[in-house]
Every structure is written in structure tokens, then in C-alpha cells.
């Protein structure tokens, strides 16, 4: 491992408050930041947050409604449950049907629907459990160790989902499984990495299916290709009947908890390559507004830089112990994201020394859905490749697009910030948290669930919507 050195190019933003402000001071602090934002912002700007926790807080506290006119927040693909491919859910469903096996997962994953090919009736793993499958809910991956030791004659599989924030706990599980010599425990890996997804979004912004992207491949995120390309020739019914230019992400609010683990090295690389400001941001209302303000300041000054507005938690080198564990147990791989398609370096697989714990290999799982073609994900070459401070990933072959989710779910457009949940005809009607049609309505970090909890009155009472910022028109997208 090569720990990321402190980067002097990262500007440190004085914290909005040295620690979360007491409730009595929050309103005053927020009012000051809103006033400063109004004084700073002279042009329209579009920012994207890529953390579901931040999306939840922004919607919960109505922070987007406090911004000056023209300053727009897009909700990005910040919910790991939402971006877990249908193929992985299908594989988990197939495992849950095997009587010799115990499948365990975090609670949110139990309600994510599989693909139509899975035949789960939209009920996900909860349906499999109701049908007799042994599906257990865990609050910590390490509980799988107890399950495996208590059931030596049965196989235990942990569905490992999450960003780099939860990946260290999964890595610890893998490490302990080998150390304890447990042969009846394995992992169904679905961990994803945030920075490659940010890069893919900007790659699309910079080159939406351009000459080096003839079929809407790397970075094109499943949007229609140029005239005559394979993707442009998709059946009409797979495309949305609306069109809109790309949303034009001009700056990112980066997830503070991910940076707390990994540090800021990969984000600094992203800024260098893509020339957009990125501000590491926290989760409290004042912290979010401080991050937005810093991003607007950088945009107004025309200085694409990395800034850390969550300095009370995030250090440039991150958490060295957690990083060392991640780099020992996992390797970055190209991975499909639900609704977005295959993202270079967008996921984590078990490193060769831990490959015996791979549930896909142990149980001979095959692809049940069309999220990506069958075959192993590609692994970057070279030591440390793909990790912050390591070699850049090797260029990979053209990427496969994601299959559109079944109508009427707009999750692909929502995960790209190209639509908001109320734009979906099923929002709050056919699709609710009790009966979700898509993953963004399942997880508490999903944008649809957040809007359902805090904004559905906008649909029920149009007068409320009239005083809120208009959502952008829907894009032309094959995602459905
Ligand atoms: S509200 Fe629409 S976009 Fe969101 S999960 Fe439900 S069907 Fe999908």
C-alpha cells in the first residue's frame, strides 16, 4: 500500500462549525450561509451530490429550496442499494432458494426487486424468505461469522453491498473467515466505488457519445449513441419520448464518509483530469451549505480545485488502517451499476488470495439478467492499480450498456440527476416504500424514498409545488 500523501492543492475550508452546532444556533448559521451564497452566486450553476445521505438531508431540510435562483442541485447515484445490478439480486434470489444455504444481507437489500427474469414478482429476497428460503438480516457483516460457526453443515453467503464506507467491514469479514479456517462462508460481492462513477458522469458530460465513444460505450452511461450507432438503433419503445441536453454537472459535492476512509487522493486526480471543482462535504445542514458555498466560490473564480469542507472528519490520507485492509482484500474491477451501465473501476472484487470466498465461483452462478454479458469483470493490472495513489487502471475494452429497467421506473434518469422522483408517473401511486417498483424507493438513501417521505405532498397539493424549484424536463434516455 502507498498511503496518499497530504495534498497541498486541497484547500481546507474552515468548518461551518467545529462540530455539529446546537439546534439553537443551526438556523442562524444556515441563514448566514444562505445569505453568503446569494451574494456569491452571480450566474446559474449546476452541482451534483453523489451521496444518498446528503440527498436525504437536502430533501429533508429543504436546502435546495433555500438556494439562490439559478443554483441547481442534482441528485446523483449516491445510494449503493439503488445501483446494485439486477443481476446480483437475481443471483442472491437463486442462492436463497437452495435449502443447504443461508443467505444474509443488510435490511435494505431484502426489498430490492430482481429482474423480470428472476420471477420474484417484484418482492425481492423478502419474497424468497416468505417462500421458505433461509434469508437473514444482518446489521454487521461480522455476524455472518457467528452464523457460519453455528451452522457448520450449511453454507452461509453474505451479500456484500455498499460504497467504500462499508467495504472495510466486509474486508474484515473476509480476513476473519480465512483466519478462522471457515469453509462454509462466502461473499456475493457487489461493493461499488464512488470516484469512478463521478468520472463516468463527467466523461459523459465532456463527450456524450462522441467520436471515441461510437456506441455509447465508456462514460456514456447507457444514453443513446450517435445517429447510426448500435445504441441509436434501439427499439423506439425503449427510449423516453423527451429530450434534453446533458444536465451539465459543473461541480461535485463529494461524500464525506467515503473520503474519511479513502482520503482525497482519487478526488484530486479527478479534478486534475476533468477540470471541475469537487468539495468534500458533510451531512449536517450547515455543512452541506458550506460545501455548496465553497463549490460556488470555486466556480465563480474559475478555479477547478479540490476543497475539503468536512475537515473535522476527513484527513487527506483517509484512514490508513482501513485503506490497507481494503487494498489487501479487494481489487478494483469494472462493474455494472444499475441504471448506469458498466463503469470502469466502478466495483470491488476479492483479491486472488481471497478468491476462494467468491460465492459466484463456489456456487457456479450464471447471469440471469441482461445487465451485462456473462463473463468475469475485468481487473486493472499492476500493483495497487485503480486505488488512490496507485497506477491508473488499464484501459478496458468498450463497455456494455445497462439494460433499461422495466417501465415505468425512471431510476436510470433519477440516478443521473436527469429527472426527479415526482417526474415518475409511478411515484407515490404504483410505487411506494411499501411496494417499491425500483431500488431508489427501497433504501432510505434512495432519492425516491426521500421525496416520498418529505415531498409527496407536492404531488397531492400542486400549490406546494408551485413555490418549489421546477424539476428539469425528462431526457431522451433508453433507461425507461
Ligand atoms: S418512483 Fe419511479 S423512478 Fe422511483 S423507484 Fe419508483 S418507479 Fe422507479
Q: Can you put this structure into words, describing what you see?
A:
This protein has 480 residues and is of the alpha/beta class. It is built from 17 helices and twelve strands. A six-stranded parallel sheet has the order 1-10-9-8-2-3. A four-stranded parallel sheet has the order 5-4-6-7, with helices on both faces. A two-stranded antiparallel ribbon has the order 11-12. The structure holds iron/sulfur cluster. Iron/sulfur cluster binds at residues 408-411, 414, 421, 424, 426-427, 431, 436-438, 440-441, 448.
What is the strand content?
Answer: 5-15%
Order of helices and strands: EHEHEHHEHEHEHEHEHHEHEHEEHHHHH
Rounded to an integer in angstroms, the radius of gyration calculated over CA atoms is: 22 Å
Q: Indicate the structural class.
A: alpha/beta
E-strand count: 12
Shape: globular
- How many angstroms does the end-to-end distance come to? 42 Å
Number of helices: 17
Largest sheet: 6 strands, parallel
Mean pLDDT across every amino acid position: 80
- The portion of residues assigned to helices is 25-40%
Number of domains: 1
Summary?
The chain has 480 residues and is α/β, with parallel strands linked by helices. The chain is built from 17 helices and 12 strands.
